[in-house]
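Hello again, I could really use a second opinion on something today. For a while now I've been wondering how a particular protein folds. Please have a think about how the structure follows from the sequence. Here's the protein in full, and shout if anything looks odd to you:

***
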Amino acid sequence: MPERHWRKSSYSVEGSNCLYVGVDECDAIVLQESEHPEAILSTTRAPLRTFIRAAKAGQFDHVTES
C-alpha cells in the first residue's frame, strides 16, 4: 500500500482533536481523527460534499451526545 499523505484541517488547532484528510489509491477521500488514528473513514467526493453542505446549513445542530 502506498504511503498516504495527510493534510490537517485548517480548522484544527494545535494539540488534540485534529482532523486529517487524504486521498487513497482509488481516489477516495479518507478521514482520520488524531485521537483514534487507527480508525480511518473512507468516502467519495459527492457524499462528502453533501455532508459538508448539510453541516454548514445546520442540519445536524439538533444532534447531541448521549
Notes: The longest strand covers residues 36-43. Residues 45-56 form the longest helix (12 residues). Strands lie at 7-8, 19-23, 29-33, 36-43.
